[in-house]
Amino acid sequence: KVQLNYTIKAGFGFTLKQIFLRNIPTQIQCSEPSGQLSGVSYQDFTVTPTSRTAGTIDWYLPENKAGVIANGQDGFASFVREKKGSSTTVPNATYIELTGDATVNGVNYTNVSFHLYPGANINEYNLKRNTPYIVNLTLSGIDLSDPRVSMTVPNMVAPADMDAAINSTSDFQITLRPGIKWSIVLPEWLSVLIDGKTTEAGNTANFSGPALVTFKAVTANPNPTVRNLPLAIGSDKFTLNQNGSSF
Questions:
Q1: Is the separation of the CB atoms in 246 and 164 below 8 Å?
Q2: 3-state secondary structure of 115
Q3: CA-to-CA distance for 144 and 181, rounded, in angstroms?
């Protein structure tokens, strides 16, 4: 028996769409095997949740002796969050998958997937017969560094050009995965508003993950030529331009 008790905390904009139990053996034998049997096919169990905020799901399945990952083998985990399986060391290990879409700081992430592997400890992937496996899951956000999480990240669009006048603004939606750190070194003519906090001109703004960035010119551009600020956000490069004065 595998039981999932899930809760999605208020404030986390995650739309839960489906829950799967993956890699279920399609055969069982009278005598319990010591490991996975050769020639066995595998299937998935699919659940469309009746509640997007909390629920309990029970599955009953044949044993799946996928194995134990020893230190030095592919997929060995030192912490619970590193329990992500291995197609090499524990092929066809049974796992729970939750899928849906998430909104973080105004950015919509699609195909968000959380993988959870039951087992007696963080490196054991054996599901034994006549044994309950209870997984208690509380989702409160998306952590980039967690290898059990995957998603589709939307592309960023370069910020629009600013007018030459003082107090002109330009918005820039940063769509990095949650957890990725980034910074903006501001010139003397530009300030920035991020998550309700203003970083004044001439300073460095530090943040991580997605954010709506609002640039503001603290001085007018006195020159007829464009002045600009190169931006390096993650692996992408952009340029913020302030138009030149026309008189």
A1: yes
A2: strand
A3: 10
Q: Which residue has the tokens 């899928």?
A: 99
Instruction: Let me know: does 108 contact 154? Beta carbons within 8 Å.
Output: yes
Q: Report which secondary-structure segment, H or E, holds 42.
A: strand 42-47
Model pLDDT for residues 2-24, shown as the tens digit of each residue = 999 999 999 898 999 999 999 99
**pLDDT score of 247 more than 70:** no
Residues 6+ apart with CB under 8 A from 57: 3, 4, 6, 19, 47, 49
Q: What are phi and psi of 80, to 5 degrees?
A: -55, -40
Task: Tell me which amino acid residue 181 is.
Answer: K
Q: Among 239, 240, 233, which residue's Cα sits nearest to residue 182?
A: 233
Taking the CB of residue 160, how many other CB atoms lie within 10 A of it?
A: 12
Cα separation of the two ends of the chain: 77
Distance (Å, whole) CA 220 – CA 192: 15
Q: What is the CA angle 141-146-152, rounded to 5?
A: 70
Question: Has this prediction a pTM greater than 0.70?
Answer: yes
